[in-house]
């Protein structure tokens, strides 16, 4: 799936043919073992903490592009993460504070719910390859102004809180279990269900401002840059594959793109690269976006 505007998300077949259009306000799908699942919310809600009031829905689509479920969520959602085993985990808010973590399967059925006793204004979560959820909350418990961490296992049983660092970022699943946290140029490793965060391995510390995706059937990571690194206005974009130890298996430079820096890897190893709008693609209502897609490149 590729998002185009605040209301349209396009479903493409593996060969790039348009399968259909999902019309939902601010819908952000995540890749699933088969199909897609994500949350649709009020206009421009994503990334705001606390999120605005309004209607939030969990929308799931099968691999055939047909809608599999449409579930009304009980409260505003601040963030969510796909479960590598299938499904979605969301962080819900109440009265301006993070209040619940809710897990849903690929059909939109609720698996479990965990209530947050503390009053946290914001937080993030991630799910590892074993289905364990890591919840990171800002300024709660005895860790203010730092971060409180807490693991919730795949059955919904929560562990004890622990000191989890000084700032939030983006969480990426780690091979074998656990998660990596990227905070700008800094990386932290959270071993599965451990209450003792560690320094990330050297190979990852040497790669700031990148996104990780487990690829090659779980044998390594695909890496693409996330920062808008430009050389004379052009994006420095590439894709690299490393094995479980972090040794590089190869790196390929992507076609040169001016200004519009956006490359990503899908769950099945598909590589996406946004192309720069040309003058011919722009009009009074804005510019049409174009994408290059390499289906299953790092499968």
Structure description:
- The protein has 299 residues and is mainly β.
- It folds into two domains: 1-165, YVTN repeat-like/Quinoprotein amine dehydrogenase (Methylamine Dehydrogenase, Chain H, 7 Propeller); 212-299, no CATH class.
- Helices cover 1% and strands 49% of the residues.
- It has one helix at 202-205; strands spanning 2-3, 8-12, 18-23, 27-31, 36-40, 57-61, 67-72, 77-82, 88-94, 97-104, 110-120, 123-127, 133-138, 147-152, 162-163, 170-173, 179-183, 186-190, 198-199, 210-215, 220-225, 230-231, 234-235, 238-243, 248-253, 257-258, 263-265, 271-275, 282-283, 286-287, 290-294.
- Strands 4-5-6-7 form a four-stranded antiparallel sheet, with no helix packed on it. A four-stranded antiparallel sheet has the order 8-9-10-11, with no helix packed on it. A four-stranded antiparallel sheet has the order 12-13-14-15, with no helix packed on it.
- Strand 13 (133-138) and strand 14 (147-152) form a beta hairpin.
- The two termini are 17 Å apart.
């Amino acid at each position: 799936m590729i998002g185009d505007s605040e209301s349209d998300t396009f479903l493409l077949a593996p060969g790039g043919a348009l399968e259909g259009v999902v019309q939902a306000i601010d819908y952000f799908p995540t890749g699933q073992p088969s199909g897609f699942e994500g949350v649709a919310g009020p206009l421009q809600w994503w990334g705001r903490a606390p999120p605005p009031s309004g209607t939030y829905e969990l929308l799931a689509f099968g691999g055939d592009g047909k809608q599999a479920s449409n579930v009304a969520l009980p409260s505003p959602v601040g963030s969510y993460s796909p479960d590598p085993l299938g499904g979605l985990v969301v962080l819900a808010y109440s009265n301006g504070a993070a209040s619940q973590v809710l897990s849903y399967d690929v059909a939109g059925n609720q698996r479990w719910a965990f209530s947050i006793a503390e009053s946290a204004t914001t937080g993030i979560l991630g799910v590892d390859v074993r289905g364990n959820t890591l919840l990171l909350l800002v300024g709660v418990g005895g860790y203010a102004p730092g971060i409180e961490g807490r693991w919730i296992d795949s059955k919904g049983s929560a562990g004890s809180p622990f000191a989890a660092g000084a700032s939030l970022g983006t969480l990426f699943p780690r091979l074998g279990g656990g998660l990596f946290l990227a905070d700008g140029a800094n990386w932290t490793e959270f071993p599965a269900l451990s209450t003792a965060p560690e320094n990330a391995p050297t190979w990852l510390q040497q790669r700031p401002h990148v996104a990780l995706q487990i690829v090659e059937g779980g044998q390594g990571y695909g890496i693409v840059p996330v920062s808008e690194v430009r050389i004379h206005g052009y994006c420095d974009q590439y894709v690299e594959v490393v094995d479980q130890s972090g040794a590089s298996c190869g790196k390929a430079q992507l076609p040169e793109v001016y200004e519009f820096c956006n490359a990503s890897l899908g769950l099945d190893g598909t590589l996406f690269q946004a192309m720069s709008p040309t003058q011919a693609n722009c009009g009074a209502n804005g510019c049409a976006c174009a994408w290059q897609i390499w289906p299953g490149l790092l499968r």
